[in-house]
Amino acid sequence: MKKVNYDLKRQLSGLYDRLLDAASEAEHAVDSYNELATEYNDALAEVVNQIETYVDARSEKWQESERADDYAEWVDAFQEEAEEASFEWEEPDFESLPMELP
Question: What is the pLDDT of residues 38-84, one digit of tens each?
């Protein structure tokens, strides 16, 4: 076999067209999700800001305490959540597939 036969190539092309249609719908859903994720991340950042403001207002002695460590872990939890709250979409690329041997 030196190239993909006509019928299979047509089948792949038709499936790819359907996949692109589905990808367009999925991309729209991902965009909507990411818009909400941005709002969610903004709210998480506000919580982090409020915690850090609270901690910064405490004495140096307090900031060296175990309680300060608890606050640092609390901030980390919100920051980790923010890192996990977005999704990137990659569209398939049928056109770049070689249908024949070089």
Answer: 898 899 899 999 999 999 999 999 999 999 999 999 999 888 888 77
pTM (predicted TM-score):
0.63
Whether residue 91 is predicted with pLDDT greater than 90 in this model: the reply is no
Residue 90 domain-assigned (yes or no): no
For residue 14, tell me if it sits in a domain.
yes
State whether residue 25 is helix, strand or coil. helix
* Continuous segment of H or E residues that includes residue 28: helix 6-56
| 10, 52, 62, 68 from 72: Cα distances, Å | 58, 9, 12, 6
**Dihedral sign, Cα of residue 13, residue 18, residue 24, residue 29:** negative
Q: What DSSP state is assigned to residue 97?
A: S
Instruction: State the residue range of the domain holding 61.
Output: 6-84
pLDDT at 102 > cutoff 80:
no
DSSP 8-state assignment for residue 3: B
**Domain-embedded: residue 32:** yes
Residue 93, in any domain of the structure: no
